[in-house]
Amino acid sequence: MPPDAKPAPSDPPSAPPQDALLARLRERLGARHVLTEATDLAPHLAEARGLYRGRALAVLRPADTAEVAFAVRACAEARVPVVAQGGNTGLVGGGVPQGGIVLSLARLSRIRAVDPVGATLTVEAGAVLADVQAAAEAAGMLFPLSLAAEGSCRIGGNLATNAGGTAVLAYGNARDLVLGLEVVLADGRVWNGLKGLRKNNAGYDLKHLFVGSEGTLGIITAAVLKLYPRPASRAVGFVGLPSPRAALALLERLRRAAGPDLTAFEVMPRFGLEIVLRHVPGAQRPLASGHDTYALVEFASPRPGADMAAELEAALAASLEAGLAEDATIGASEARNAALWRLRESLPEAQSREGGSIKHDVSVPLSRLPEFLERATAACLAEMPGLRPCAFGHFGDGNIHFNLSQPPSMDRAAFLAAWARFNRIVHDIVHDLDGSIAAEHGVGLIKRDELQHYGDPVGLDLMRRLKAALDPADILNPGKVVALSDDPPPALP
């Protein structure tokens, strides 16, 4: 090189791949919808229970399906994982990011169409469940999915987790309430399955791959939902019973008496009612004395002129006369009906104020529910005397939240450290009774290894094959439900 020659300028150092991805996303979505500040990320890194705390590169807030598709395609090309979030009200760690991008669907909140004749409602995934219910009501119809978080959870998450709630007995899970879906796939393509058809046998029913998949196979961006006639008459009763076996007998009697008019049958134990009365302001004892088991019963009918209060009163009177029930009351107004429902719906909040709680969301065949409760209660008390079982929930559809409150004198952290021990005790009994270890909350992280332990090997292989076929690069919510790698899920705190 001549003495006066200058070296050729070197190429400027390339930006880190993540910076290039964020720049690309900001250009399309707008900088204010690509959040990277710690204070903006924090609400998206943990669920309500706080069992896991995750990490994320950024939170994206796309405005429509096209922006969701662009974001997913960009992340796939950069090999950056994506975790979709709705209201972030999950309970099993399914929406907690373990790096990568959180894709918030909160801005996809439009009600796209209402069809009262076809009894359908087309909504975007970010619509809050309570707003979906209100849109149905404005059309003179009913969207029956109802759960405690309905003021903040979003319909896309409800479908992605196949949410249950209090109306399953009459209307089914979220899976039973959807006719069609729009889904962004792992490579950014959009599957348009938004058909409001009651009958469609043109090949595989693809929507059911995505309902309940917890965002691991595709991201739901819109749905066609089923609507029903609004009830013209409703009655709510609260019943004191001597045992869960008596509750099952009462359920059978009421089902024969009311048929489809029996729309809810929820059960809670004496301990559950007592802690609600202790911790929930305004809660009032519904019956004069205490009982081993309580049932909240609802009759409802869309028939004009139906008198559900009279029908429920007659059915409960016959049950009292037969010795199935010990005492009962019926709400004399909608305000009283709401107060009775509040006793049941406030139970999770009340239990949280009693210290640590180890939770099991399980289901067993309806006829075996009393056996499960007896066996699981005895086994858990034998393992830890002083433990306070609190088994409650959707008795009418076989789903029980078999929760365990810590002994009053025990350290909370020491109690929660026994979670895995009690999982094995409770889930072994569930498995022996041909039940499910994940009834309505999903698998997420907290039950991923339990699914591997109890799941049918052929079924697990099919799940992994589906995941590998639809998301071969493991971009969508990796490590949840079924894992394509052997990495263990994060430990519980």
From TrEMBL:
Residue intervals of the FAD-binding PCMH-type domain: 52-230
InterPro entries: FAD-bd_oxidored_4_C (IPR004113), FAD-bd_PCMH (IPR016166), FAD-bd_PCMH-like_sf (IPR036318), FAD-bd_PCMH_sub1 (IPR016167), FAD-bd_PCMH_sub2 (IPR016169), FAD-linked_Oxase-like_C (IPR016164), FAD-oxidored/transferase_4 (IPR051264), Oxid_FAD_bind_N (IPR006094)
GO biological process: respiratory electron transport chain
Cofactors, names only: FAD
Coiled coil: none
Pfam family, one: FAD_binding_4
Annotated GO MF terms: catalytic activity; FAD binding
Superkingdom field: Bacteria
SUPFAM superfamilies documented for this protein: FAD-binding/transporter-associated domain-like (SSF56176), FAD-linked oxidases, C-terminal domain (SSF55103)
Keywords: FAD, Flavoprotein
Family in the record: Belongs to the FAD-binding oxidoreductase/transferase type 4 family.
Protein's recorded name: Hydroxyacid dehydrogenase
